[in-house]
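Protein modeling request. Please complete all fields; requests missing the sequence field cannot be processed.
Requester role: graduate student
Desired output: 3D structure, token encoding
Chains: 1
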Amino acid sequence: MVRTGSASVAAGPTLAVVAREAGVSVPTASKVVNGREDVAPETRRRVTEALDRLGYVRRPRFDAAKVPGLVDLVVHSLDNSWSGAVLHGVEEAAHEAGLEVVVSAGLNRTRGGRPERGWLDKLIARGSSGVLFNLAELSASQYAWLDQHRIPYVMIDPVHELPPGVVSVGAQNWQGGVTATEHLLGLGHERVAVIAGHRRTMCSSARVAGYRSALASAGVRQRAEYVRHAGFDETTARLHTHELLDLPEPPTALFVCSDRMALGAYAALAERGLRVPDDISVVGFDDLPESRWVAPALTTVRQPLAEMAATALRLLVRMMHGERPEGTRTELSTRLVLRESTAAPSARS
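Delivered output (349 residues):
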């Protein structure tokens, strides 16, 4: 079942009850519900906790049966080319659909890194009728909040496993891991290491699973010390590359599960006086612009980020019309982009 929030909103506590629970006036509680800024942080916190504790449901101000012209896009940040590709895909698809898009970067965050209730209230206040979440982590109560307000939403490249029925768009990460590893094996490498992202992320675990599958199919021994988990950033990837190079039998090739991490691997190899691909081969993942700018240009697995975002927007429009997608998970194909960072292992290696 697709979670479009089509169920009727159950009756809940009044705003007066919420105000009494939080120890504030009804006008103050109303300001918090409507996303007003002129509320003290401590007061906002008390009201927000009371809203969540009592299960207060704010009625939509717009006609949910009609498709209006405003949707929200929530991205993890705007300081990287990944988000730029997602924005490009959403913008093109939104233009085709005649929609306007409000972009939120990072949201207002709690200690757990999830969007605060205040942002969700603002979503209703401005009349958005659909949301795209990119690399977002939502709690069970936030999923319920969106459903209670009958706001359709689609997850782009979700971080974790989603609740049943949540619609999402991603890439074929497992196949991408297979393709990258098979390419290195085909060049003659048998000591292939992988530097992945966080263990708990869906894309990271799928890419590592593809790596393991390719090794098993080729009859190549899997080495536990060749599997490293970083934080999808250059710094941790650089440190893990140094650790791999310090092994008694270091790898001759690296499959690095993001282009950004591959830049960290490049830095570590340069610090060791090693050349890519003469001394060690490197394959990335994503095909961001940086993969073409580095020297040597990075062989990588292309993840169709703009296409993923556009597909998610089109699915969202269908849900705004009251349609149900045939499936809840859409995966777009990945492909290997050959550049200059891979070669057969050298005799010295």
